[in-house]
């Protein structure tokens, strides 16, 4: 971050000019300026936030709700402001708080020291918290606005029903200069309780535009290459990923992972830095592959890096990532196929598929009676065990006796969650099942036993 | 804050002083001198409480009004006036409970004990029942001489929440005391639920006096503007009279402005309560700085824009193209199947049809990539599972509903940066 690329230089000049305008009495000016420099593309948000907060000794609005997509700098901006301006604040990530007691504990110890938090009883209620807070704040009244920052505030909805409404009007309840800042990805409408509550001020952090993403991503360019090269690399990367993902953190991770591959032709001397087209041709398929693997977390970053080392591994990895294969016994495979057929074919078509002499099919009638939507859209239907066994006997090529070993394979398929039992376990005489594997999976399975499953599916007739 | 003479105040100090004052007012930290438009209610309540405080009559009353209509403010003003009477000040005890904080009767009783300063009297005594405990508390308040004992005012904020406590023990006992000629108590309930009496059990209801004070503001628009002016004006005792005169003048002029009136009218029509007005004014006031030391039209315009922004549209603006396409597909499914729930498979199918037939700007994506986009929408709660309890269903086949209106989708599409034309056309076409 020492040398900024040229692309951003102009932009940073702008932020400089902005920060001169960004004058907030009560705060040291040079801290504000360095703050504005460290938060690229968030100038207006920073300004509005500071305006809302006002001077440190002034009252601030009881609760502020900040929402915006993941990685748009919500917590980063708020926390940097708090830390750099040295304001009294308690920042709590609601994911960490399995009980409201933990939340109270963190807030009290941040404001009044660990001794105060130790005064909380064992399972503190909201009442205890407010009482202690009042007691403490009467001993040391707030000279500056105290801020409680609750990250991932959507978790508060799952906690005690009165917690969220009470926090929103905490200023009134404890009669202290305290502001609660809630941060969330989810819009405020989803938070409002049934009978309403104190409405916080809503404040939106917009997503970064493409140009802004380029600017920010170019900040961490590699020292041994020119910033221009890195910027053009970022442009190529965004060309592939921008339509799918706008999450800055994810894009940044992908950028770091794939940069060495991008530089490979340069190191081998096959291309120069100016041959953008050549470099693009080299990296593009690679990025496409990354989208199908690393982006989906089918391979870990370490595996992906290893794969870049040797191309040999690439092919094996591809197979590995495509669909996790489970090796099943021979009859289990057929049982699964039978279950799949029973789940996705209507029962009345069984005659047609599995009976040797099914009589004359009135073809027109059969085809015209197409359901409005195919079963592959609606999902698997439950079926009785008998039906599955009947289909199983007819699809498996050899004669199989209905032994205990066959039935035990059914229950092991249930344990593997390839089948799922519908209804209660106490239905002993005719249990019902559902097949819960995808079409791709069943196609792969049937290929291993040389069975053409598509021919037997009503949807693909 | 400087305490120097007004002449010595710099511009910056003047502005920040004014801001401090207004912010305090708009954050509801300061009670107004007199509640606006609630004169009859004010008198009624004051009279009731005076009878308890001075004459020792027990009473119970409910103050009902929508959120932000000034219930707490009204009560605060009444109590302030009541407590200014000398004989009341010494004598009356005030117990404030809040349904949000005292979530069950045990906690509430502990809080009552604490607020009556009776912790050491109670000590480690063990009580048989709740009523016994409460009776003991009230007994302890009785004076040695005469039959008179100190009147207690019980304020129950969020009264409806107390009705959800087990057996409504607290309410039953409080109202029972208020009915029988024991200690003089006044039970004041504050609630935003009109149907609150329906929540009470029969035995509790019959002990309630059925006195209700309703707060439905009936102010006209002209009065509303007057309130705005009053809220923004600086008081006469502001340290710098010249500045406050200028400020007040500018506020008066601002309220006459056409566009400002339009904004206020819009807010007035949406809701008459003052709390939403305060948040609007707060935003406007916070924009005042040293370089622009008066409140101007642009501040209010910007504040109104911030307040009335549709947050879902804001969220849609930040979605990726793929996610937006999925939303459009869901919209089409909603149109064709008349709002029936859908699953991922259907959405994917709809999306695939679009890719095959009409799209030239968007390429094919692998199904897992689409699934990831879909799950992001689920995480943002733009789509919602019909019944979340069923976990046995595969993720692709779980039934979902779109939580967006038709209009919201179309509006988001208009505002979307660099939206490909074929996607727009697809969204506009009647059937996928």
From TrEMBL, chain A:
MF annotations from Gene Ontology: ATP binding; DNA replication origin binding
Task: Provide this UniProt record's keywords sorted from A to Z.
Answer: ATP-binding, DNA replication, Nucleotide-binding, Nucleus
Give residue ranges for domain ORC5 lid: 230-297
Indicate the quaternary assembly: Component of ORC, a complex composed of at least 6 subunits: ORC1, ORC2, ORC3, ORC4, ORC5 and ORC6. ORC is regulated in a cell-cycle dependent manner. It is sequentially assembled at the exit from anaphase of mitosis and disassembled as cells enter S phase.
What SUPFAM superfamilies does UniProt report for this protein, alphabetically?
P-loop containing nucleoside triphosphate hydrolases (SSF52540)
Q: Which residues form the Origin recognition complex subunit 5 C-terminal domain?
A: 328-457
Matching Pfam families = AAA_16, ORC5_C, ORC5_lid
Q: Which domain of life is it from?
A: Eukaryota
| Name the UniProt record assigns to this protein | Origin recognition complex subunit 5
* Annotated family: Belongs to the ORC5 family.
Compartments annotated for it: namely: Nucleus
Q: Where is the Orc1-like AAA ATPase domain?
A: 38-181
TrEMBL record, chain B:
Q: Which UniProt keywords apply?
A: ATP-binding, DNA replication, DNA-binding, Nucleotide-binding, Nucleus
> GO terms for biological process?
DNA replication initiation
**A cellular-component GO term for this protein:** cytoplasm
Keyword Signal carried by entry: no
User: Major place of localization?
Assistant: nucleus
Give the molecular function GO annotations.
Answer: ATP binding; DNA replication origin binding
Q: Where is the AAA+ ATPase domain?
A: 57-218
**Stored InterPro entries:** AAA+_ATPase, AAA_16, ORC4, ORC4_C, P-loop_NTPase
Q: Where in the cell is it found?
A: Nucleus
Any one Pfam family match given in the protein's UniProt record, by short name: ORC4_C
Its quaternary structure? Component of ORC, a complex composed of at least 6 subunits: ORC1, ORC2, ORC3, ORC4, ORC5 and ORC6. ORC is regulated in a cell-cycle dependent manner. It is sequentially assembled at the exit from anaphase of mitosis and disassembled as cells enter S phase. Interacts with DBF4. Interacts with POLQ.
- Please state which protein family the record places this protein in: Belongs to the ORC4 family.
Free-text function comment from the UniProt entry: Component of the origin recognition complex (ORC) that binds origins of replication.
Name of the protein described by the UniProt record: Origin recognition complex subunit 4
What organism does the record attribute this protein to? Carassius auratus
The gene designation is orc4
